[in-house]
Design a protein that fits this description.
The complex is a heterodimer of chains A (287) and B (219). Chain A is mainly α. Helix content of chain A is 72%, strand content 0%. The chains are: A mainly alpha (287), B mainly alpha (219).
């Protein structure tokens, strides 16, 4: 409980400091709401798909890109586009979760391969659809509402029966002795994660942004694992740091550092700290 | 980029990029073994985290070296032959290593090797040194490639091959994947980097998955 309170406080401090800096550098408040909303959606998706399943699934950009495509393919009302993105994201997420099974190394390899293929396809076909808002831009109230809903879902699922069953299914026997179907449970969790990631992808698409690729998948896995044993608050804190920091630095013209390199260096640092504090060694149940 | 400019040198380029992929796969294999020898205990997530930190560090070193090499004089064409020679030397060296002392056990199961009194930590240091030399070699070899090929040859497909396939298959598949990436990058520069290589790795991965499923179904 103490770790959770510390993680929530840390998350609020990160969002507060980075958000305040963003506004101080002249960033519009509506854009900040959108950025924080997307960070929350990504954090909840990482918590559900990676933290609860205890699987290093690198392919969360796949449902995210699917949501991006679904939301930008038709000229539909924002709410309808978001619903479509969530549905498509859920289907893709469930598929990814079902395919990513076996040892941790195999899960990394399979999902890394899927993410590489998805990034290639997205880079190849999305370039001509970028450069401006592709649909009606979502209102800040809608974004905030979605973020609060996702937070509620993540917080409720953290203590739910599904989380307990997933924890049992992450044991060495895959939950077989308890009569559980591990891959189906995993697909259920990643399906929910995919729906939330699809919403994030739709929001990115509706504001004219490109769908993030493999690097985001890598950062989300680190956020979920280094964030502390599947804690929603820890995952959110790290996701917010990874997502907001490059945006803040992009606004600061005095900073010329390559933000991608910086994000990867930060991710490496987070992993080192997690290794040093033995936070990752506790996950011995992972098969 | 006009691909016909490179036609006379195409066989050498294909060999060079394939060697580069094979060396990258060998580097990841050596790093994986070095980490296993250095830290034989710990859960699979901790093992993967150490590998991720090491791979990140290697990529940052490559980025730094690429910038440094671009500022200096590009390597002469003779560098193209260093890769295949190094590859043969590594294969021969591995064969010789496995013949003597505790290396075979240390490489196969470091935890058991440590329990039987074999100094796996010293093996880890030696493997680390080999990995460092490989990192430098790969950086120099990459600098000798034409920019279109160098951009296309994604560095993550060899890692996927190493994690998904057996050591020998992984080296062969990684070589083919990076060569495919290089060729596609040269002939069709608009193709997203890494896509051809990922497709090449997907085929044996699918095959291995299908065989595993078929074996599971056998009585």
């Amino acid at each position: 409980m103490r770790a959770e309170i510390v993680a929530w406080a840390l998350g609020l401090v990160i969002i507060g400091v980075l958000g305040g800096t963003f506004l101080a550098l002249g960033g519009p408040p509506a854009e900040l709401v959108l950025l924080i909303g997307i960070a929350v959606l990504l954090g909840v998706a990482a918590h559900l798909g990676i933290g609860l399943t205890q699987r290093p699934i690198l392919a969360l950009p796949l449902p995210l890109s699917s949501g991006w495509w679904a939301a930008t393919a038709f000229e539909a009302a924002p709410v309808l586009a978001l619903a479509l993105a969530a549905g498509v994201g859920a289907a893709v997420g469930a598929l990814v979760g079902y395919v990513a099974r076996g040892s941790a190394a195999r899960v990394v390899a399979t999902t890394l391969l899927l993410a590489l293929l998805a990034e290639g396809v997205t880079l190849g076909f999305a370039a001509n659809r970028l450069g401006g808002p592709l649909g009606a831009a979502p209102s800040p109230a809608l974004v905030a509402g979605l973020a609060v809903l996702a937070l509620g879902l993540g917080w409720w699922l953290q203590g739910s029966l599904l989380a307990a069953l997933l924890d049992r299914a992450a044991a060495l026997d895959g939950g077989e002795t308890a009569g559980l179907d591990g891959p189906v449970l995993q697909a259920l969790a990643t399906g929910l994660a995919g729906a939330v990631a699809g919403l994030a992808g739709a929001l990115i698409g509706q504001t004219g942004g490109a769908p993030p690729g493999l690097q985001l998948g890598f950062l989300l896995v680190i956020a979920a694992f280094a964030g502390g044993r599947g804690l929603l608050a820890g995952t959110l804190a790290l996701t917010a740091a990874f997502w907001l920091l490059p945006e803040v630095l992009a606004r600061a013209s005095a900073v010329t550092i390559d933000v991608d390199v910086l994000a990867l260096a930060l991710a490496g640092l987070a992993l080192l700290v997690a290794l040093w504090t033995r936070g990752l060694d506790r996950r011995v149940s992972d098969g | 980029m006009d691909a016909t400019l490179f036609l006379p040198a195409l066989p050498a380029l294909v060999l060079h990029t394939a060697t580069l992929g094979a060396l990258q796969a060998i580097l990841y294999l050596v790093l994986r073994r070095a980490l296993a020898c250095g830290w034989p205990t710990g859960g699979p997530i901790a093992v993967l985290a150490r590998l991720a930190v090491t791979v990140l560090t290697v990529h940052l070193v490559w980025l730094g070296l690429a910038i440094a090499l671009e500022r200096g004089t590009p390597p002469p064409p003779a560098v193209l032959w260093i890769g295949p020679v190094a590859l043969v030397a590594l294969v021969v060296g591995r064969g010789l290593l496995l013949r003597g002392s505790g290396w075979a056990l240390a490489l196969a199961d470091p935890l058991v090797a440590r329990r039987t009194g074999i100094a796996t930590a010293s093996h880890a240091r030696q493997l680390g040194l080999v990995a460092l030399l490989l990192v430098l070699l790969i950086a120099v070899l990459q600098a000798a490639l034409p920019p279109a090929v160098a951009l296309a040859a994604a560095a993550l497909t060899p890692l996927v091959a190493v994690l998904l396939l057996g050591p020998v298959t992984a080296v062969v598949v990684a070589g083919s994947a990076v060569a495919a990436d290089g060729l596609v990058g040269l002939a069709l520069p608009e193709t997203p980097p890494g896509l051809a290589g990922a497709l090449v790795v997907s085929l044996p991965a699918l095959l291995v998955g299908a065989v595993a499923l078929w074996r599971d179904g056998q009585p």
